[in-house]
Amino acid sequence: MSPINKNAKQVLAPVISNKRVGIYHQIIVNIGDLAQKCKPGNFVAIKVGGDNSALVLRRAFAISRVSTSSASGGTMELIVAPHGQGSTWLCNRIEGDLIDIVVPLGTAFRVPTEPLPVLLIGGGYGSAPLFGLAEVLNARGSRVDMILGASTASSIYAPMEGKRAVNTMRIYTEDGSTGQTGRVTDHLYEQIKDLNVAVVYSCGPMAMLSAITAITTALDVVHQCSVEESMACGIGVCMTCVLPVEGADGSVSMLRSCIDGPVMDGEKVSWSQVGKQL
Amino acid sequence: MSALDFSTTIGNAWFPAPTFTASGCASSGRELAQFFPLREMGGVVTKSVMSRVRPGRPTPRMAETPSGMLNSIGLQGPGIDAFLTQDIPYLIEQKARVIVSIAGETVEEYSTLARKLRSVSGISAVEVNISCPNVENRGLVFACDPDASRRVIDGVRRTLGGELPIIAKLSPDVTDLVSIAKGVVDAGADGLALINTVLGMVINVNTMRPQLGGKTGGLSGPAIRPIAVRAVYQVHAALPKTPILGMGGIASGKDALEMILAGASGVSIGTASFGNPTAIMSIQSELKQLLIDRGFKSLKDAVGYAHRTEEDSHG
Fold first, then answer.
1. Nearest to residue B15, comparing CAs of B221, B193, B245?
2. N or C end: fewer C-beta atoms under 10 angstroms in chain B?
3. What are the angstrom distances between the C-alpha of B179 and each of B144, B150, B158, B175, B182?
């Protein structure tokens, strides 16, 4: 078989639960043995709208956590905001509903073999997959610190149980409604130095990922970011979700964020050329 | 075992099933191979390849629309040399039947591409894409100009010689599709691929600018299916002996049957694969069953069946 999408399967999977967590929905889906193939950073592509829907494209969601040992077998957790038609449909699923999913897709966060101090940065619900990553890093003995940011308090996603694997958590909101007023990058340079951070992991809006890269590059710290670009297929056939990325020879080419991402090396993304004609 | 002969032919190329990918909708083939064996469908129509590496258009490249989507990829690709060394051997190794799609900016570029294909073994046919809407200058859409269309096909035919079948991919965005179809068939096309995407635009009401980086894009999906059925029907009526690969929003076996009845000898599936990686496999099995249910012994008997007259029905 092909190395692309090599663990991916298309299955009809039952929704186990759907709970509101602030403005978000925490949706747990039974994915059986596929849970063992899912790594932090991977995503799932979900058919939305039901049969005969006018919504013809799948929706991609980051997998926030997986469990291989729950009572119902392997499960994955999704954190979804009912923003558009597709995500609203998904947030309206109830226990027992079957959803058509393709999982796992995309690249995963690379986890260091040695226990190194790491910093996880999430913007809005981009923090969701970082809690699953935090558990993996914590289990490997890494010191895990976290910074979350959003426009306002209600957009911060930080579940109680997720904090267990995290040493410290700083929160920034642009309107100051919770945590410090400002952005995740405001004191990032000092924080990376003070905590002696070896790897920064991030997930959130593209402008945030770009701003983080500027700081990690200056400090020569590895930055693995989960990018966000509109996708039509999630499996690498449509070529819509591309980003300008520098290759080994230094040349920039358009790589697919579904196959070569969503987790990419921030330093290799040519942020200034995103949205431009190469 | 069903008694149905499901095979189809385009020129001298034979395919065991009438189901194909649409060009630009299966990338290198490796992506879909995880979901079903590529040899199980009629054939892979590759992404239209050009002479050189091409980065394509800026992002955003996609906007979902009611029952469809707009794309403005702009023929991103590795160029013919890398394509022939990396992608073609893979497809042949998978025992897929391959239709190579080529696109050029000039009549000469199409001929140059055809020359590189002459010596490649294992290819079933060549699709000449003269209708990609995502080029900087709409004047370069050869398929909107009957004379330019003929010159491209004539150049490719001369370069290829008489062996490989040529399928000309045409645009529905023209005043008189039948005259363009006749022109390319006169120039040496063995078959036609109908239709390419329909030129469209979405404006984002929040940014109050065009949604796509390339401003305009090609509309695909079920939204354009009636346009495709009309195009296939009109062209089949005028050129009943010319095989047509019908495409445009086919998402079910019923949709595929509609296209066959209109006059298509085969169908290509594009946008449906974006929403469902196994769409081609389900469309294939549904189409087969629908033909059997209607008493057809052969796919070929159903091609253009919607054109029969009252007399034919009673005869």
1. B245
2. N
3. 11, 11, 22, 9, 5
In chain B, % of residues over pLDDT 90: 91
Average of pLDDT values for A260-278? 95
ipTM of the complex model: 0.92
Nearest to A241 by CA among B219, B72, B61, B189: B61
The CATH number covering residue B93 comes to 3.20.20.70
B291 within domain boundaries: yes
Global pTM value: 0.94
Q: Which residues of A touch B58 (CB under 8 A)?
A: 275-278
Question: Which domains are seen in chain A, by residue range?
Answer: 9-105 (2.40.30.10), 118-273 (3.40.50.80)
Q: For chain B, positions 17-56, list CB contacts with chain A under 8 A.
A: 24-27, 30-35, 47, 53, 55-56
Number of domains observed in the structure of chain B: 1
Residue B295 lies in a domain: yes
> Each residue of A213-235: pLDDT tens digit?
999 999 999 999 999 888 899 99
Range(s) of the domain holding residue B147: 8-57+76-201+221-307
Which residue among B10, B113, B132, B219 is the active-site one?
B132
- Count Cα atoms within 13 angstroms, Cβ side, for B50: 18
CB contact under 8 A, B273 and A233: yes
Residue B3 covered by a domain: no
Residues 6+ away with beta carbon under 8 Å from A70: none
Among this protein's residues, is B25 annotated catalytic? no
- Name every chain B residue with its beta carbon within 8 A of the beta carbon of A237: 25-27, 31-32, 273-274, 277
Indicate the average pLDDT of chain B: 94
Residue B312 covered by a domain = no
